[in-house]
User: Fold this.
Amino acid sequence: MSDIHGQGAGRAGPQGPLDTFPRLLMHHARVRPQRPAMREKEYGIWQTYDWAQVAGNVRAIACGLAQLGFKRGDRLAIVGDNRPRLYWSVAACQCLGGIPVMMYQDAVAQEMVYVLQDAEIKFAVVEDQEQVDKMLEIAGEAPLLEHVIYDDARGMRHYTQTLLMGLDELQEMGRIHDRNQPDFVDREIAKGASDDISVMLYTSGTTGKPKGVCQTHAAFIAAATGAMQFDKLTEQEDILSYLPMAWVGDHLFSFAQAMVAGFTINCPESAETVMIDLREIGPTYYFAPPRVFENLLTQVMIRMEDASPLKRKLFHHFMEVARRCGADILDGKPVSGSDRLQYGLGKLLVYGPLKNVLGMSRIRVAYTAGAAIGPDLFRFYRSIGINLKQLYGQTETCAYVCLQPDGEIKLDSVGKPAPFVEVKLADNGEILVKGPMLLKAYYKRPDATAESINADGYFMTGDAGFFDEDGHLKIIDRAKDVGKLADGSMFAPNYIENKLKFFQHIKEAVTFGAGKDCVTAFINIDLEAVGNWAERRGMPYSGYTDLASQAAVYELIRDCVEKVNADLASDPNMGGSQIKRFLILHKELDADDGELTRTRKVRRNFIAEKYAVLIDALFAGKTSQYIETQVKYEDGRTGKVAADLRIEEAKTFAPQAGRRAA
Assistant:
C-alpha cells in the first residue's frame, strides 16, 4: 500500500504534491478507502466512517457551501464540541480555498461577537440548538453573517429564520451539485497552495483582545510530520478528540496529524461521557492538559480511600515499588531482578487494572502541555508504565517547539527542540523560535506580526527559560511577568503558581510581589478534592464559599504553601520569593467572569484590578478583608458573592546560598 509516512509534503500523489490538507484527504481516500478515519459515539453506539466516506461527505459539504456562495478566501466559523461533521466542514472549507475559524464552544454569545466581527464571518457551521441560539442573539452585531448551518437538528423544528439551514440539507444540495459538476471540487483543490492559510485560531487574550493567528497548510503539515517521525506514529493509531476544536493542540493532534498519518479520530458522545468513551476506545496516542491527568489521579485516590483495608495496603505497597523502579523500567534502564519481579507482580495486581480503569491500557505515547505538570503527578503516570511526556509550543508555532525524546525524560523540562525547529535564547532569557511551523500573520494586524518576529526571522515567544547541561529547555515564566522584589530577588509568578497547583487541593493560584517586599497569594481550592477531604472528617459545609472559609481548610492549604516555600528555599534563583501571606478566595476564578481565558489561563492584570482591595490588604498586613464580588451564572443572570476573607501568614525558610538570577 502506498503511503506518506515520514515523507510529509515531499511525497506526490496523482494530483501533485501532498502539500495541502484536501490533497492529503483525497490521497487517504484513494490508498486506504476502507480504513476507519473517524468514529463518533451516538446514543451509546460507535459509528465508524472510513476515509472514502469522509472524503465523500467533505465533497458534499464543499459543494453545498459553494452553492450558497462561499468563495475562495472567505472565512467559515466552526463552533461546537468535537464532531466528525464539524471536522468535515473544516476540510470542506479548505477544499474551496476558504479559511476555517475555530471558536470556543463554551464561550458566551457576547464573547463570540468579537471574533465574528474581527474575522468578518459570513458563514458559520455550528453543532446544535445551543450554538444556533447564540448566533441568533448576536446576529445584529455581526452584520456580515449570512448563513448559519447546524449539524444537530434536535429542537430546531420551529426555527424559521432565513439565515438557518441544516447540514443534512446543505449536503444533499452539495451532492446534486457534485453529480452535475463532478470535477468542481478537484479543480478547487488543485488551485490550493501549501502557503495558503489553512486555519485561523485565536489567541487566548490573556493581556488584551485575542488575535487571529493565520497558519498555512505547510506549517501544520510540517509540525504534524515532525511529530510523527519523532514518535513513530502510523495509520494504526487511535486518538480521542475531546479537547476544544478552537485550541491549537486539538488542531495539531486530532486534525493535522490524522490527515498526515491517516490514523483514526474518535469523538466522544459528550463531555460527561469522556471517561467511559476513553475506556471503550483505549487510544494508542493521547493528549491532555495537566488538569485532566490531575483529575484522573484525584478520582483514583478518592476511590482508594473508600476501598477495603487489604486493597489499600496492596495499592500503597505496589505504588511504592512503582515509584522506585517503574520509570526506569519504562525507559529501559537497568533495574535489579527483585525489583523487576515485584514490578511484574504489581503490573498484574495493580498497574494493569488501574490503566484499564483510566482507559490507558493501549497508550504508546501520551503528551501533556498548556501548563506545568507536577513532578509527583508526572512520576505517577510514568511509574505505572504510561509513556507520558511533555511538549512546549504556542498557537503561533502550531503547538510545536520542543518534545521530550523517549528515554530522556526529565520531570522539570519540556524536552529538546523538535524536528525542523531552531530554538535560542535572547539576552534577557526570552525563548526565540524559528522553523516552518511559524504563523504566516496575525489577521489584519501587520503591526502585531512585525512586533512578534525579530529581524533574524525568530518568533519571540514571550516566555523566559534556559537550557540545562543536556540541552533540555526549562520554562520559568512569561518574560514580561518575571520581575523583582524590592530586595532584588527574582519573582516569577507563574513558576510559583504552578508549584502551588501541583497539590491536588489547590485548583488555581495567583501570586503578587513585583516591586514589593514579599510575595502574597490568592488560592482557589479544588472543590471536589477538598470537599471529599472534609466529608471524610465529618466537616459540614454548604458550598464553595463556606468550605473555603473554614479554619481546617486554611491549615490544609497552609501546609501546601509551606511545602512550596521549602522547595523555593532550595533553589538559588528563587529562594527569595517565598510566599509570606495568603488568602483563599471566596469564589472560583471563572472564564465567564473574565478572570480566566477559555484555556484556563489566569488574566493577571484583570484580577489585580478587580481584587485590588484584597491585594492591598495582603501587603498591609491585615488579618481579614471584606469583599463583595459580582458573578455571572451559566443562565446569564448575575448575582453577588460577599465574604469576610481571612488572611494568613505562612512559614518561610532560609534561602540556600547561591547566585541570584540577574
In short: The chain has three domains: 8-230+242-266, 393-479, 483-649. The first strand starts at residue 12 and ends at 13. Residues 632 and 638 are 4 Å apart (CA to CA). Residues 8-230+242-266 form a domain with the Rossmann fold fold (CATH 3.40.50.12780).
